[in-house]
Amino acid sequence: MTKIAIAIHGGAGPDSDFIKQHIKEYKEGLKEAINEAYAMLEQGSSATDVVEAAIKNLEDNTLFNAGKGSSLTEKAEVEMCASIMNGFDLKCGAAAIVKNVRNPIRLARQIMEKTKHIYLGSIGAAEFARELNLPMEPDAYFITERQFESYEQTRKKLNDNGQQLAIEQLEKKHGTVGAVALDIRGNLAAGTSTGGTDFCRQGRIADSSMIGAGTYANNDTCAVSTTGEGELHMQYVTAFHISALMEYKGMSLREACHFLIQEKCKHINGDMGLIAVDTKGNLVAEFNTSRMHRAMKSSTQDLIVEIYPK
């Protein structure tokens, strides 16, 4: 029997009282998403379909910073980013600075399959979503009480203490969701979606929508989805970097992930994390943070759902 495997993540970064108080809910959300996706793999669904479904589930869960529950920009608006990639033929699609689209990962998938482009942003992305009759929602749908409170706290500190403190505050508030999968036909896929960084500048584009930085899949090597501080993943082209270490240096998936996060980037004072799966169904979660919400399951590995380092 051909091996099947999936891993999902719900963001990496510093710990918080909110996370500690809702560990059960976070784990239940991860478990629901991965079980639904794994059942699809068992039924023969493609890796791309499975990745899209898992991320859509997390986008609809208000606990995670993607879709409903996204962070707010400095203008108190939601701007979302997402991407998806198929390891079979390297086709990919991405959407940036998206507003009002209920599930940005679905939009990224449609860009991949129904346009000659890879990347659409802002108004153009939203117009394309409307042409396809993808579900749209008013601004209020995406804003949760928790995210608004976070925005208000940061805004108050900005007013009270100046710009520098606000910058320090936003550096510690970020989040993403993502998924990687290997299907029964041996195809890999990866996808990533984010609601952005708390109190970021309007128009910021996240690594979650960047092929090679936030998302990458190649049937010759692996599929990767990243999380943490997006600017770092852009600088190190993290998702492709893992694939390149495997292809050009002959590293295993685990060796490549550990080398990049724990050795190559060990001098970096910033949050980096990723999930990955290779062509043999090996699953890896690597991060340098105090927590990364994650779940894994394969035909040879029982379900694992974790938030903190094991």
A few lines on this structure:
This protein has helices at 17-21, 23-42, 47-59, 104-114, 122-131, 139-142, 145-161, 163-170, 230-236, 238-249, 253-264; strands at 5-13, 80-86, 92-98, 119-121, 177-182, 188-194, 215-217, 222-228, 272-278, 283-287, 291-298, 301-306.
What do these coordinates show?
With 310 residues, the protein is of the alpha+beta class. The protein has one domain: 4-Layer Sandwich (Glutamine Phosphoribosylpyrophosphate, subunit 1, domain 1), CATH 3.60.20. It contains 11 helices and 12 strands. The chain has helices at 17-21, 23-42, 47-59, 104-114, 122-131, 139-142, 145-161, 163-170, 230-236, 238-249, 253-264, and strands at 5-13, 80-86, 92-98, 119-121, 177-182, 188-194, 215-217, 222-228, 272-278, 283-287, 291-298, 301-306. The strands form 2 sheets. An 8-stranded mixed beta sheet has the order 4-3-2-6-5-1-11-12. Helix 4 links the parallel strand 3 and strand 4. Helix 10 packs across helix 11 (253-264). The chain is globular.
